[in-house]
Design brief:
It contains 4 helices and 5 strands. The chain is of the alpha+beta class and 130 residues long. The protein starts with a strand and ends in a 9-residue tail after the last helix.
């Protein structure tokens, strides 16, 4: 799990060569698009959470502070979602001024419920492992 809530954390992630280059490019793009007022802390407008393969649901819940997967079958809890192939990007509106981006890897070790949720709303086939 990776949580980026200030400019130093974003910079550290962007220079971390162990992170997937596609993920680093997505974080770069979104930070550049959203972080336009350098007079205010980044946390006032954006928090970025990166789910890693193997992160258990309770760790994900603690990082985002709300359940990502809602029980409403056909109504997602996110504002919008992008399928970037190897990553799903889920955007949440937290307040009138602030939002959260959650990046979820399209990986077989990603939490199965979260992975299936992302695949479903991306319009991709959900492959059952049973």
């Amino acid at each position: 799990m990776l949580t980026l809530s200030d400019r130093d954390a974003v910079t550290a992630a962007l220079t971390d060569l162990t992170l997937d280059p596609v993920l680093r490019a997505l974080i770069t793009l979104r930070a550049w698009q959203i972080d336009t007022d350098r007079n205010n802390p980044l946390s006032d407008v954006l928090q970025i959470v990166v789910v890693h393969p193997g992160d258990p649901p309770e760790v994900i819940l603690k990082a985002v502070s709300f359940p990502i997967i809602l029980d409403r079958a056909d109504q997602p809890g996110f504002e919008w979602m992008e399928d970037h192939g190897s990553w799903f990007e889920l955007a949440y509106v937290l307040t009138d001024e602030a939002g959260m981006l959650v990046f979820v890897p399209d990986h077989p070790d990603t939490d199965p419920s979260l992975h299936a949720y992302c695949l479903k709303f991306a319009g991709r086939s959900v492959i059952s492992t049973n």
